[in-house]
Backbone:
């Protein structure tokens, strides 16, 4: 089975999954590695954000964490090295904007990502129409390319994106950047049901999810959630992200 | 492929050469698809074109004149002409695009308009156009730029626009674009993003060029009428490059006319010291399109510097990237000091106070005439310098 197929399996087996997000190199590389190690042991998958200087899809929390990671010297090469030191079967999901991947070289970066256990890749500024070249490079190294869908994605497009998404479908629960206002759960439920009806891989809901009650309500309409800004906020306050993630599952 | 086919590809596919494209979050795709469809439709209808032309004539004050510079021609040793966008309403070429897109926004039923601004000229243009057309307007502006372009901030407020200070990132134009994009991502259905330069995702580079080409069409006809020929060279400043592409585009098939874009050389060649994107950058994806950008080996975007807020930007429009790579246009840089010298020379010998952005084109023309004595040059004077008086007063020179 390829990496993204194992990821899909792992997400299905543990549904409803809580997939935590960490900004790589935040607040510093050693602390990040420590958090990642512990989160990997309690999660079906972990999403790792590779910081970019101009993260247009991210809200203030992840933006600030990216800036701090970059200011602390985090680079894609350094992050790959840090990830390479792990012994863990828990698949990783990498999230990054397109430009750092282009700068590294598409083939080189896909080989490196596959080598450190990245099963699927989320690129928030790469819509499906522009993804051919990146998708082919990813495919050569069995890295899955995840498609994001939103409540504004219309039926025909939703069908295409859901059928092409590898590992899982990233269902953005609202219009807005990461960490924004909590979505209205009734309309979100109907939207997630529709996404699920098109998807052959698990559906993970993300953006604006921060408490156990939301997770419980969403769990009936998807296969799990991605929690990002809420975790990064905890880390920024020096609190333990593992405890928080365990609490979300309760 | 003829030049025309190549340039139509920007309209049809959003790509020119390998540059351009549409690199945005999925949530913006429906809005951009709709904008592309509506912009193509409306710009193709007589009624929309007529209304736009009427506003450009009766309110913006087009056509703007072509001015021959008698004393400066003698000083610099050539025949120097200016296309006077500084005389357009609100004092810069930005108003053409402001009006064109505000009309589009109204036709598309937007309930509010958002815009980013660097020097404040695009912000003022958007504010004025929205006031005229009756649309609510919010402008995102970096905190650094709010400080250095205070007169324009006050103008926007007087025109009824809300100005949002952007404190994130480098707190200049680049951060303002990031923040405007985020605001758009939050409400893509009823918000119209009035992007001010020929940058960003498709269809903006085409749309902005299409509207700003009025500058080059007028200039070409005026120049031919007055001189019975075309200039040897045309120079324009390039930040994102909307004024330059608007001036260059109607001359693309006139292969005997040299096209020269002048970027901000800032304080020098070091990282963070300039904003000379084509001269010193490399290809990559920033703010929705594949073009040249100033970036490090890891693909992280450099901070930039220019005395001119309007040029202080690490990206450039994809059509300029293509023109540079194809060799049809060349790109040079002028330092802060060169631009200030040229600004003084124009003011004292011709009674025209240029914007700091436009002063870079003047500096480029001066160098061109040193290398081509006696040449006939047309310079795009993209805006007037009133907004820069506080900066000019504050400079130690």
Residues:
């Amino acid at each position: 089975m390829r990496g993204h197929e194992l990821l899909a399996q792992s997400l299905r087996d543990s549904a409803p999954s809580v997939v935590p997000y960490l900004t790589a190199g935040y607040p510093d590389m050693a602390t990040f590695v420590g958090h990642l190690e512990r989160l990997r042991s309690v999660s079906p998958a972990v999403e790792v954000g590779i910081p970019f200087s101009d993260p247009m899809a991210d809200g203030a929390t992840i933006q600030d964490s990216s800036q701090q990671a970059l200011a602390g010297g985090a680079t894609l090469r350094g992050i790959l090295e840090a990830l390479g030191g792990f012994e863990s079967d828990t698949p990783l999901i990498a999230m990054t904007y397109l430009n750092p991947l282009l700068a590294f070289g598409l083939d080189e970066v896909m080989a490196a990502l596959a080598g450190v256990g990245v099963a699927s890749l989320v690129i928030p500024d790469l819509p499906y129409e522009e993804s051919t070249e990146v998708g082919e490079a990813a495919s050569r190294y069995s890295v899955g390319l995840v498609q994001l869908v939103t409540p504004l994605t219309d039926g025909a497009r939703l069908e295409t994106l859901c059928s092409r998404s590898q590992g899982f479908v990233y269902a953005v629960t609202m219009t807005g950047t990461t960490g924004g206002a909590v979505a209205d759960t009734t309309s979100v439920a109907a939207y997630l049901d529709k996404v699920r009806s098109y998807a052959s891989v698990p559906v993970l809901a993300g953006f604006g999810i921060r408490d156990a009650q939301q997770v419980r309500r969403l769990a009936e309409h998807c296969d799990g959630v991605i929690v990002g800004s809420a975790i990064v906020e905890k880390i920024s306050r020096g609190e333990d992200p593992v405890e928080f993630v365990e609490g979300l599952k309760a | 492929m003829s030049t025309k086919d190549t340039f139509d590809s920007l309209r049809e596919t959003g790509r020119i050469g390998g540059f351009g494209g549409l690199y945005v979050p999925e949530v913006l795709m429906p809005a951009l698809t709709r904008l592309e469809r509506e912009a193509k439709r409306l710009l193709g209808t007589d009624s929309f074109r007529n209304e736009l032309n009427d506003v450009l004539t009766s309110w913006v004050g087009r056509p703007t004149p072509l001015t021959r510079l008698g004393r400066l021609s003698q000083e610099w040793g050539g025949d120097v002409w200016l296309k006077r966008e500084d005389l357009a309403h609100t004092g810069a070429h930005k108003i053409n695009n402001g009006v064109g897109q505000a009309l589009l926004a109204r036709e598309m039923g937007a309930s509010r308009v958002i815009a980013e601004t660097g020097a404040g000229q695009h912000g003022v243009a958007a504010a004025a156009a929205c006031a005229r057309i009756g649309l609510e307007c919010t402008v995102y502006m970096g905190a650094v730029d709010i400080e250095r372009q205070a007169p324009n901030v006050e103008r926007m407020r007087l025109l009824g626009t809300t100005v949002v200070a952007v404190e994130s990132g480098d707190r200049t134009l680049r951060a303002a674009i990031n923040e405007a994009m985020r605001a758009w991502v939050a409400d893509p259905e009823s918000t119209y993003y009035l992007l001010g330069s020929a940058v960003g995702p498709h269809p903006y580079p085409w749309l902005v060029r299409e509207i700003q080409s009025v500058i080059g069409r007028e200039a070409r006809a005026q120049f031919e009428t007055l001189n019975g020929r075309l200039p040897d060279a045309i120079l324009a400043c390039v930040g994102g490059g909307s004024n330059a592409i608007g001036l260059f585009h109607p001359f693309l098939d006139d292969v005997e006319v040299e096209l020269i874009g002048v970027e901000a050389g800032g304080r020098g060649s070091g990282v963070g010291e300039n904003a000379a994107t084509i001269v010193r950058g490399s290809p990559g994806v920033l703010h929705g399109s594949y073009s040249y950008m100033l970036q490090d080996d890891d693909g992280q975007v450099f901070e930039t510097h220019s005395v001119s807020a309007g040029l202080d930007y690490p990206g450039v429009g994809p059509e300029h990237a293509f023109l540079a790579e194809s060799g049809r246009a060349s790109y040079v840089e002028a330092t802060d000091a060169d631009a200030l010298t040229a600004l003084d020379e124009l003011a004292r010998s011709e009674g025209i106070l240029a914007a700091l952005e436009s002063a870079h084109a003047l500096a480029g023309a001066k160098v061109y005439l040193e290398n081509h004595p006696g040449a006939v040059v047309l310079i795009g004077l993209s805006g007037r310098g009133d907004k820069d008086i506080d900066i000019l007063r504050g400079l130690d020179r």
In short: Chain B has a mean pLDDT of 95. Chain B touches chain A through 32 residues (CB under 8 Å). Chain B has 16 helices and 14 strands. The first strand of chain B starts at residue 15 and ends at 16.
